[in-house]
Amino acid sequence: MSWQVLNPFGQEPIGSVELVGWPQVDRWLDEASALHANRKALLPIHERIAILQRASALMRERDEALALQIAREGGKPIVDARVETSRAIQSVELCAHELFASGGREIPMDLTQAGEGRKAYTFREPIGPVVAISAFNHPLNLIAHQVGPAVATGCPVLVKPAKDTPLSCQSFVEILYEAGLDEHWCRFAPCTDDVAERMVTDPRTAFFSFIGSARVGWMLRSKLAPGTRLALEHGGAAPVIIDEQVPHDVVIPALLKGGYYHSGQVCVSVQRVFVPQNELADFAAKLGAGAEKLVVGDPVRDDTQCGPLIRPAEVDRIETWVDAAVQGGASIVAGGKRIGPTLYRPTVLVNPARDAKVSQEEVFGPLICVYGYDSIDTAIEQANALPYAFQAAVFTERVHIADYCVDALAASAVMVNDHTAFRVDWMPFAGRRQSGLGTGGIGYTMADMSTEKMVVKNTPSGSFAPEVSG
After folding, report:
1. What is the CB neighbour count within 10 angstroms for residue 24?
2. Which of 60-69, 78-87, 212-221 shows the lowest mean pLDDT across its residues?
3. Which pLDDT belongs to residue 102?
4. One-character DSSP codes across 263-305
5. pLDDT of residue 469
């Protein structure tokens, strides 16, 4: 069996990967478990650093080919695919850098009489075999965030890529091999969903890293073997609060970037924008005018700003949601129509009903909804009303409003005067509520994939002292 990989824009085949079955995965899990159990097999830290450094150098040599692969298999515009490639290279370098800073700490023992005469310190050990399941929207950098930390911390890892975008993952694993990593430490494991579920829930899996839909992630979490640790990264419906009298021409470029980057196929993409009621019409018109100017088309063209959605079914879904919102009273000021099997115009909806799908669920497409508000508390209440909470934003020129929104918004991160999709690869990145569990970011993932062990040495006065001659 194999997965055929299609170019989302033209729908033509561009490659394929052979699937692995359970017997092979079972052997790999046995192998990973044995590797972890054999302390003599653990790669020294300096070897892991050297492998990661060589891998980043190889990626840098092939950066344009890797970017083109992202654009061709995932539909991300080439200008953004180049940025993703640069980020992935930096993510690998960050894994090596974190190893220089990763160490233990001294635990004071003599704070009470009971600890007197003892010295204690900690150090970190790899947690064990890691199983990583990834998403399509950042097919290289997400893999770097899941596999790189496993390699850095000394964990054997099996990685299942997204069915739509396995080629970037395959390239990354092959680069690690070329950089000197023995294949026993990292296995490329494209497989069917039933095999993936067995792999994730197997008791030999020590850590499960998942990036994808909340429905699948929370389902798999409920089936994990006792003792398996995990990190889940899902999506949200990111809210943005616009304060009174903020210059629209300053805000709108940021929202266009944050809402239509990769055609909205980003877990923290700008989706719900709350604007003072008396500014709503003007703001929506300007945002719509900006959306209409975005270039939609073939992602390998340098002038393309919005590429295709990953598959035709996603366009069908968004078309249905938008049509339902309009029937429910929303107004379209831009877009609102498909222009090809996988292309949908960047769309702006005004005041969709609160119970509309576009107001309740993650759209994961090129759509921004704009709502009028009479008081900022009403806007915050509506922003916080969903069972999802990830990154949020506020645009304001008033410090007290910024501070108020930072405190009041249900989010793991609040961007002040920036869009919700901002991220750098070393910052903590986490969903709250149904949006995820655990914290992403290179250093945070490395901490998750390792465990802290403490040593307590008891040396009572005069005991175990060496003999002194002379």
Report:
1. 14
2. 212-221
3. 82
4. GG-STT-EEEEEEEGGGHHHHHHHHHHHHHHS-BS-TTSTT-S
5. 54
Tell me the residue type at 53.
Q
Calculate the average pLDDT of the chain: 95
Q: What is the Cα–Cα distance from 94 to 72, expressed in whole angstroms?
A: 27
Nearest in space to 438 (alpha carbons), one of 424, 448, 423? 448
Q: What long-range pairs does 408-415 form, CB within 8 A, spacing at least 24?
A: 408/377, 408/380, 408/384, 409/239, 409/241, 409/380, 409/383, 409/384, 410/383, 410/384, 415/391
Tokens of 79: 């200008």
Residues labelled catalytic: 233, 267
Q: Round to whole Å and give the CA distance between 379 and 233.
A: 26
Query: pTM here?
Result: 0.93
DSSP secondary structure letter of residue 429: B
Please give the Cα distance from 283 to 266 (Å, whole number): 24
Give the rounded percent of residues in the chain with a pLDDT score beyond 90.
95
What's the pLDDT band for 462 if we cut at 50, 70, 90? very low
Rounded to whole angstroms, how far apart are CA atoms 104 and 123?
4
Rounded to an integer, the average pLDDT of 271-292 is 98
Task: Tell me the pLDDT tens digit for each residue of 420-439.
Answer: 999 999 989 999 999 999 99
* Residue among 167, 155, 168, 159 at smallest CA distance from 134: 159
Res 186 pLDDT > 50: yes
Q: How confident is the model at residue 103 (pLDDT cuts 50, 70, 90)?
A: confident
Quote the tokens at residue 460: 């009572």
Structure tokens, 433: 């509520």
Element (H, E) at 404: helix 399-408
CA 52 vs. chain centroid, Å, equals 20
CA 109 to CA 291: how far, in whole Å?
A: 61
Separation between Cα atoms, residue 221 and residue 219, nearest integer Å: 5
Angle between helices 78-101 and 141-153 (to 10 degrees): 20
